Amino acid sequence: xxxxxxxxxxxxxxxxxxxxxxxxxxxxxxxxxxxxxxxxxxxxxxxxxxxxxxxxxxxxxxxxxxxxxxxxxxxxxxxxxxxxxxxxxxxxxxxxxxxxxxxxxxxxxxxxxxxxxxxxxxxxxxxxxxxxxxxxxxxxxxxxxxxxxxxxxxxxxxxxxxxxxxxxxxxxxxxxxxxxxxxxxxxxxxxxxxxxxxxxxxxxxxxxxxxxxxxxxxxxxxxxxxxxxxxxxxxxxxxxxxxxxxxxxxxxxxxxxxxxxxxxxxxxxxxxxxxxxxxxxxxxxxxxxxxxxxxxxxxxxxxxxxxxxxxxxxxxxxxxxxxxxxxxxxxxxxxxxxxxxxxxxxxxxxxxxxxxxxxxxxxxxxxxxxxxxxxxxxxxxxxxxxxxxxxxxxxxxxxxxxxxxxxxxxxx
Length: 412
Prior knowledge:
Elements: E1 2-3, H1 7-18, E2 26-30, E3 36-40, E4 46-53, E5 56-62, H2 68-83, H3 88-96, H4 103-118, H5 122-132, H6 146-158, H7 163-182, H8 210-240, H9 256-266, H10 270-275, E6 281-282, E7 287-290, E8 301-304, H11 307-319, H12 341-351, H13 359-371, H14 376-383, H15 388-391, H16 399-407
Helix pairs in contact: 2-3, 4-5, 8-12, 9-11, 9-13
């Protein structure tokens, strides 16, 4: 329909929509300016739009903010730019006196606060972008180029960063620019065509050999025995001198042994162990819950406990005084642990194990499952991987399946 767009007309149609009289979007075209129109949604929200050609439209603004006269002026600017072969959206930005923010300003004023509020590692991710891409901080978002990204990629690789790390850096920057597009700060992501570098996802996976696992377990047992014996000796010395004794330790010297054994038997990540609460451990049913709020993937998953994991947690539960709440492996004063680096390094040295990270306990869990014949999809579910891409790194550990496949060539 056509009419002369006015504030009164816009208000009338919005009132009709809110009264339920507009079952589907309605468009009222301005009688005086071709291509200028008001679109009213059934919800009552109305927007001024300019039609620049067949199937090509540009939303000018909300009718609750702009007057018809203001919107009509903007429509003329956009139509004039389109007629001259210029970018109508850019022309409107010039008309408004607005500029595209620099990456530095975007991270500080917009994306950084949003990440901190909506992502568990938001502040760390933003700090990472600043550290990795200092040469891009003064560039406006729409002036960041694929060539700049390629130069940055080359510099990162020359500095010794792994291809996978460079890919992750690219991914976080592209994600930030995607948000800038979503929030209409820029029209398109300038890095949309930049592809990640090729990574061999079937590379070497570090996991404990049977001999190494035996040495690790012995080092744990020796450490527990030594520390517990030391506590008993110290208490005997104190008692003989009528001094207050320290609490007896029990089976374990501290949290290290139960954490290591639970990791080997469940594949739970270190950070997930730090976040694990007693209310998430069901010893009666034999499973633990990794909450999405504390998981890397952000998704909750349930992990069954085998006999050893259940026994270790039950023993640790008794030693901790059988609490009903609180963290399973608390730090000082019940606070969340943030590192076990010193104890872990000492344990590896005692066990004679080198080039082994805590995360490799997770690889050990997965590798043992695959070598025992567990299918990869089940392993994926236990590890909490979103798809099989990450889990496929363990596929080479199941040679029996490949051997059975190629043996069919000579059957019959």
